[in-house]
């Protein structure tokens, strides 16, 4: 990725809470996204990594306006997506798309593949003849042939269904796609095929991806930059190669240490990161209760430390 690439998406101080308990006297909220800031450049893949429940998917939904933000600002092509006119809103919908985790639930089982891929074109008023040509071309771009167009999702394998979901996402030639765990429901061999497909689409069409995953191995093969999330807060972000080679935040180190080595001979060389469990602190670092290097200073919130295109949320980084 060219570091001078223009910014496509800019997120500032984005926050989102969900009501989890309500009584006559008080309400309890769960903080899913906590004051998040990042950019996505044109023709870039930004990997968003974290455990289940860390807020990754919520960030994706907020960016696509599938749910409403509580506070913060989201700009797409320099425009606040919450201040768009009706015409600009439709254009925003045309330029952005999503690929969900499980194609079994994201594809309508009653529709044929050609109807599924064609649907976005109908919504955006493409002429009928143009729709036919685009559907045929797009299914090929997704790595399938025309014979799949008259089939139903139930007749396809998991990998083939995910290719259909990707075809539907790219048929309008969007500028940005949020890919929410698009490989986690697939076999390992099929995962690699989908990773290669996404990379090819980026190269061919210049599509930017926000690639959400819990698997650092998958993200490491694909992403230009990585953003590590824990309990709705960015722990570390920077170039993918730098983070994988030299993680600075204890949580990133913990994620990397949990990955199996490329070869059994490397097992002894792995850095051992021992997770600790202690009482949480209300006003301190969100990772304090599990951090292996936490000290009393961690009971206060750290500031983001920036150096060499890296940001780390830690007192000791």
Offer a quick outline of the entry.
31% of the residues lie in helices and 25% in strands. By secondary structure, it is α/β, with parallel strands linked by helices. The protein folds into 2 domains: 235 residues, Rossmann fold; 66 residues, no CATH class.
How much of the sequence lies in strands comes to: 25-35%
Rg, alpha carbons: 21 Å
> End-to-end distance, in Å?
26 Å
Instruction: Give the CATH superfamily of the largest domain.
Output: P-loop containing nucleotide triphosphate hydrolases
Q: Which architecture of the largest domain does the CATH hierarchy give at level 2?
A: 3-Layer(aba) Sandwich
On the 0 to 100 scale, the average pLDDT is 91
How would you portray this structure in words?
- The longest helix is centred in the middle third of the chain and has 18 residues, at 188-205.
- Helix content is 31%, strand content 25%.
- It has two domains: 7-241, Rossmann fold (3-Layer(aba) Sandwich); 246-261 and 268-317, no CATH class.
- The chain has helices at residues 56-63, 86-95, 103-106, 113-123, 128-141, 158-170, 188-205, 216-222, 240-245, 250-257, and strands at 7-22, 27-41, 45-49, 71-76, 79-80, 96-99, 176-180, 208-213, 225-230, 233-239, 304-307, 310-313.
- It is an alpha/beta fold.
- It is built from ten helices and twelve strands.
- Helix 4 (113-123) crosses helix 5 and helix 4 packs parallel to helix 6.
- The strands form two sheets. Strands 6-7-8-3-9-10-12-11 form an eight-stranded mixed sheet, with helices on both faces.
């Amino acid at each position: 990725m060219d570091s001078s690439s223009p910014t496509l998406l800019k997120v500032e101080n984005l926050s989102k809470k969900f009501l989890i308990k309500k009584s006559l006297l008080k309400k309890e909220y769960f903080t899913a996204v906590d004051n998040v800031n990042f950019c996505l450049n044109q023709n870039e893949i930004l990997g968003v990594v974290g455990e289940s429940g860390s807020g990754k998917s919520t960030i994706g939904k907020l960016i696509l306006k599938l749910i409403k933000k509580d506070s913060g600002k989201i700009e797409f092509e320099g425009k606040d997506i919450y201040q768009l006119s009706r015409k600009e809103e439709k254009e925003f919908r045309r330029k952005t798309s999503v690929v969900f985790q499980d194609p079994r639930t994201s594809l309508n089982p009653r529709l044929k593949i050609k109807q599924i891929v064609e649907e976005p074109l109908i919504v955006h008023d493409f002429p009928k003849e143009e729709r036919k040509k685009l559907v045929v071309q797009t299914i090929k771009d997704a790595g399938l042939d025309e014979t799949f167009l008259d089939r139903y999702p139930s007749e396809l394998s998991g990998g083939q269904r995910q290719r259909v979901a990707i075809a539907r996402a790219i048929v309008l030639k969007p500028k940005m796609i949020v890919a929410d765990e698009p490989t986690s429901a697939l076999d390992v061999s099929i995962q690699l095929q989908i990773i290669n497909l996404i990379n090819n689409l980026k190269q061919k069409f210049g599509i930017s991806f926000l690639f959400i995953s819990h698997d650092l191995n998958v993200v490491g093969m694909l992403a230009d930059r990585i953003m590590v999330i824990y309990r709705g807060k960015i722990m570390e972000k920077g170039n993918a190669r730098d983070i994988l080679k030299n993680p600075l935040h204890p949580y990133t180190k913990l994620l990397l240490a949990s990955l199996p080595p490329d070869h059994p001979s490397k097992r002894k060389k792995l850095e051992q990161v021992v997770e600790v469990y202690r009482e949480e602190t209300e006003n301190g670092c969100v990772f304090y209760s599990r951090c292996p290097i936490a000290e009393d200073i961690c009971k206060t919130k750290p500031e983001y430390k920036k150096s060499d295109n890296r940001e780390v949320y830690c007192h000791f980084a």
